[in-house]
Structures are given as structure tokens and as C-alpha cells.
Amino acid sequence: MTQTIDSSTGSSSVSSRPRRTIRQRLLRLLVICSLSLVGLLLLGLSYQAIASAVDTAHYPPPGKLVDIGGYRLHINCTGTGSPTVILDAGLGGTSLDWSKVQPAVARFTRVCSYDRAGYGWSDTGPGPRTSQQIVKELHLLLVHAQISGPYLLVGHSLGGLNMRLYAYRYPQEVAGMVLLDSTSEHQFAQFGTYPPFFAPQAVSAAEQQYLLLRGAALFGVARLALQTGLFPLEEAAAYPAAVQPIHLAQAAQTRYFSTQYDELAALQESAAQVRAARTASPSYGHLPLIVLSQDYSHDHSSTRKADGSHLGRLTERFGLSFFQQSAERCSAQWTLYSPGST
């Protein structure tokens, strides 16, 4: 009896096994990679949460935390006298930015630095993070902390935009204003025949950068990059030695880059709010005003932040006169330039 074997069927069965084996191996590899990625993300989340908690315990606030309606802002006041100087830092800045300025100003009057919501020791606040929202929070902070006016408002960069809006909103509380390399409300829109200083593409690119950093901070990647020097804080050396590790710890917090993104995303709306306030009240009247700017013709770098070192050197150069004379005199408006300061 002859037995017939279907060679084509046998061949097909044999060839299908390797294909199934390859698919199984690829699937197994995909599962392993996915689980490893999830494990790394969970590890990063845990690392960031634990390290942030350790930093919070290790560096308590030098001032006090004041509840302004469900969240707290940090304010640190030193010195005695009147008017009270209120300091507001630029984008990404905290009360630490005034570490070289505040002790000197405290020699002759009361001075308060504070952390906007989401920075430093302050809790995260509601959005959008416009100048209008920030001014509202600062006013509540001063009221709840029982820090009475009159106030001498000092704002650096974005802080200058905030302080100008504060002066428009609460003119009866303001004795004078000092603007340090202040952001202008016309930097982001056409002004007469002048194009925007910051083109929309540049603002959008910066937003994308902070969006990436915000995601990296959540999983501890930004913290590792900061601590290992892969992503150094260029202005860190400008702070006093005792302040530098605190500055680094605050920059590694999850909310740090998130808050910068939120403020930057709201920057054009903030500028529009100041433009609208200026249209409604074109003049500050007889309010003493000092505008202090760096002479950038001596600085060819693409970006330059007026950090604690810059502010400290300006303070030493002018002998605090731009604060003191504004506090003691009701005079005309000044514009001072600091040639070559960095």
C-alpha cells in the first residue's frame, strides 16, 4: 500500500512556525520595553516627589506664608521705615533674586520681597498667570499680611510690567516706582512704525522650550540635569554662596518650569492689560518714577538676564540713591543707565 504525503501542506506548516516565533519574540520585547519605560517613569516620579519633599524640609521659608484665599504666598520683610519697598522679580525669578539688594535697602526703610504664585516658597495659584491676576494676588497678600502703604514699587523685567499695572489699579497706595530693565507692553505688538521687539515666533519657541522642561521636571529629568551640570543655571554664581543651593533646589521643583510656561503663555495678554490701563489713565501724574536700564550697546550676548549680580552691582554703583532718593523725595521722573553692567 502506497502512502501519499502532501508536501505542500507540510512545507507551509513548517514555514509558519518561524513566523509565529518571530512575532512572539517581538511582542515579548515590546512588552518588556513598555514595562521598563513605565518603571522608569514611576521611578522618576518617585525620585522627584521625594527630593522635592526633602528640599522643602531642608530649606524653610525665611519669611511667612500668607493665605490669600485657598493658597499661600511667601513674603519676606526686613528693615523699618516708610514707604515700604515692594520687590517683584522677573520671569522665573523669586525673592532670592533680591538677596544682594534687600539687605542694603533694609538699612534705611522697610523692604519686602515676595514669591509670585508657583515660585519659591509660594503655592501654585489659579490661571491664567497674567499681570492682572498677579496684581490681584499681590494686593491680597499685602492686605492679609497687614503690610500697610504707602508702597514704593520696584519691578525687574516682567515684574516691572506687574508693578506698573499695580500703580494703575491702586494709585492711592503707591508713593513711587522704580523699574529695572522693565518689560514694555509694546515689546510684543506693533508700535507705530516699529515691529514687535519679540516676534510671535520667538515667544512661541520659548513656550515650547518651557513646555518640554515642564514635562522633564515632572519625572526628575530636569533635576538630574541641573544637579549634574548638564543644564546649568547660568546666573547661579551671581547669588550669595549661602543662597545658591536654595536657588538650585527651587529651580528643580516641578512647578518651577510650569509656572514660567504659564506666565510666558500669558505674557501678551499681560501686555494688553497694561496697554488698556495706560489708555484709560495715560499718566501717573506726579508719582516719582525711576527707570533704570542697562546700556546694551556694551553687551553683545544674545541674551542677558539682570540677575542678582547685575542688581547688586547697580546698587553698589549708585549707592542706593535710586531707592533712597525716591523714598525721600517727590521729584521728577529719572532715567538712569548703567553702561556695561552685566
What's the helix and strand layout?
Layout: H1 7-58, E1 64-67, E2 72-78, E3 84-88, H2 102-105, E4 111-115, H3 131-144, E5 151-156, H4 158-169, E6 174-180, H5 200-218, H6 221-228, H7 244-251, H8 254-265, H9 267-280, E7 289-295, H10 308-318, H11 321-328, E8 334-339
What this model shows, in words?
The protein is elongated, with a radius of gyration of 27 Å. Strands 1-2-4-3-5-6-7-8 form an 8-stranded mixed β-sheet, sandwiched between helices. Helix 5 runs antiparallel to helix 8. Strand 3, helix 2 and strand 4 form a beta-alpha-beta unit. It has 342 residues and is an alpha/beta fold. It has 2 domains: 9-58; 64-339, Rossmann fold (3-Layer(aba) Sandwich), CATH 3.40.50. It has helices spanning 7-58, 102-105, 131-144, 158-169, 200-218, 221-228, 244-251, 254-265, 267-280, 308-318, 321-328, and strands at residues 64-67, 72-78, 84-88, 111-115, 151-156, 174-180, 289-295, 334-339. Residues 300-333 and 335-342 have low confidence and may be disordered. 47% of the residues lie in helices and 14% in strands.
